[in-house]
Structures are given as C-alpha cells and as structure tokens.
Write a structure and sequence with these properties.
By secondary structure, the chain is α/β, with parallel strands linked by helices. The chain contains 13 helices and 9 strands.
C-alpha cells in the first residue's frame, strides 16, 4: 500500500468543499424533490466522464447481449441516476432522524431475523452495490443493531472521513479492507461478540481472490465472507434493497445461508459462489439498479489465465 495514497492534499480539500456544498443544498430541500434533482444532475455525469460511460455500456452489452443499443444506453443512464438518488437519500437519512421519520423513507423487512441472530450467533450481512446499500447500513443502526461494516477507504481522505462519520451517525463502526488494521481478524473479533457485520460481495478483490463467473465473465471475489462464516460458524443474511413505487427504500432480509461445518478451500469457493448467485440474479432482474461504474472485471484476463492453469477450481 502506497504511504502517500491517503494523504490529504489541497485538491482533496477543494473536492470535499464542493461535495459539502452540494450536500448542504440537497439536505435543505424536500426529500422527494432533492432525490429527483440529484438523479437528474448525476445522470449528466456520463457526459463529463466519457471513458467510464463507454466502459459501462460495453460491460452492460457483454452481460446482456440480447439487449438493443438503446436499451443498453438506458440501463447506463439509469445506473448514473441511481447514484444521484443514493447521494440525496443518504444525506437526508443521515440527518439525525427519529426512527419514525426514518421509516417514512426506508424500512427493513425481516428485521426479526437479525434480531434473533444478534447476541446469539451473530451474523454477516450479504449486500452489494445495488439500489442504496448505504441506506441499509443506516437503517440497521437506527433499528438498533450493533453493526460494523467492512468497506474500502476512498482516496480522498476528507471525503472518506465525512462519509464514515455519516455512515455511523446513529451507531456502528467501519473496518477498512484496504487500510489500517488487518480486516479479517478485526471482523472475527466483532463476530465473536455475537454482533452483525456487513460486507459488500461485489468489490473486486485485489488479492487472496476466488475466481468465479459473474454475469458471464470471470471476476475476482474476496472469500472473506465465506471464510468468516465457516471459521466462526455464523449465518449469512442476503439483503436485497429496492424502491417501491413511492420511492421508499425497502431492505429485505432473506433467510440465512448456513455455512458448511468443515473448513476447506473447496467449501469456501462453493459458499462464495452460492452467495454470488443471489447477487447475480438481482442484477439480471434489475440491471439499472447496479453500480455499473465500478470496474468489476478489471482482472478478468488474470483470472482466465489462473483458471486455465487450475481447471479444477473453475465453477
């Protein structure tokens, strides 16, 4: 890890001030108006980031070869707009709301499953960059769950600190997978205390990867969820976030996935694949709600080369 990567610079501070200004405007506007305004504004970002937009449409067309060019462009546009909705929803939901006020905009369905796990077995939340994952983190805290999240630190330290402050404004803490304390052991200690841990499944692993097919292409998946579940013998709760017709965020906690009782890399690989399939099916069903701006297949060639040499690991 570069020692200079997360150092503060004047450029970082200017970016931070711009973000704070935008958030201040959004949070003082009515909720629905704020969300719609942010959706439209961020939708235009594709014009100013043409290379990223081109990669997004290319990735979408490879995942959905049956779709027309116009359909692919619409999915890309709506994915950008979803990022705008996420920003406005997040700043409003992290604005010190009461539980009753919070539930007007975001609710957990199946919270009793997490209640049963907290303090008895503990559990891992299986979630990803779909609809508004940050809203579920806030919801888990305001609903009373003692949760931590495993996240990647962003390069701008000012923005990272502010995001982390808002992410844990009701309660909770963050373990960084790419900075500071070894995340695996910090997560083990958290789960040992029978608490709830959230992990994003669709981050591209930079090392210690499991190579799996995702939307028809080879991608690097972190095995940390499966490793923790098997080592600690805790259930994994898939959580699907969607918006209803009124724009209310609904966070559905599905039935837990129980880990194998015996540790082996084969079991780790198959459990990771099982969890990946939940997420993959959600993206196939609603592609515009996924964060296509994330370069999910940046190590595809490396993965294909590895699986060619280790065909027994190909699933």
């Amino acid at each position: 890890m570069s020692e200079t990567r997360f150092q503060k610079t004047p450029g970082h501070y200017v970016q931070y001030l711009g973000l704070k200004f935008a958030c201040a405007i959004l949070v003082h506007l009515p909720y629905r108006f704020s969300v719609n305004l942010s959706r439209k504004a961020v939708g235009y970002a594709r014009v100013f980031l043409p290379n990223r937009y081109k990669r997004m449409t290319r990735d979408i067309s490879r995942a959905f070869p049956e779709k027309s060019v116009q359909e692919i462009k619409q999915i890309a546009l709506e994915s950008w707009q979803n990022m705008g909705a996420i920003a406005a929803e997040f700043v409003h939901l992290a604005n010190g709301l009461s539980l009753e006020e919070f539930k007007k905009h975001c609710r957990i369905i199946g919270a009793e499953k997490l209640t049963a796990a907290q303090g008895t077995t503990g559990g891992i939340i299986h979630i990803g960059h779909f609809t508004n994952w940050e809203a579920f983190g806030l919801a888990a805290s305001i609903y009373g769950f003692d949760k931590a999240v495993l996240a990647q630190r962003v390069d701008n330290p000012y923005i990272d600190e502010e995001t982390n402050r808002l992410r844990n404004i009701y309660s909770g803490r963050t373990f960084y997978s790419n900075h500071g304390e070894e995340p695996f052991f910090a997560s083990m200690r958290w789960l040992k205390r029978k608490k709830i841990l959230g992990i994003l499944i669709d981050q591209s692993a930079s090392s210690s990867e499991v190579w799996l097919p995702f939307l028809g292409r080879t991608a690097a998946f972190s095995p940390i969820t499966a490793l923790l579940a098997i080592k600690m013998q805790v259930p994994v709760f898939p959580v699907q976030v969607s918006r209803d017709q009124d724009g209310v965020l609904l966070c559905r906690v599905l039935d837990p996935v129980l880990p194998p009782t015996q540790y082996s890399m084969d079991n780790v690989r198959h459990l990771t694949n099982t969890l990946k399939t939940y997420y993959e099916n959600w993206v196939y069903a609603d592609p515009a709600s996924w964060l296509w701006a994330h370069n999910r297949w940046k190590r595809e060639a490396q993965g294909e080369a590895y699986l060619k040499d280790h065909p027994e690991e190909r699933l």
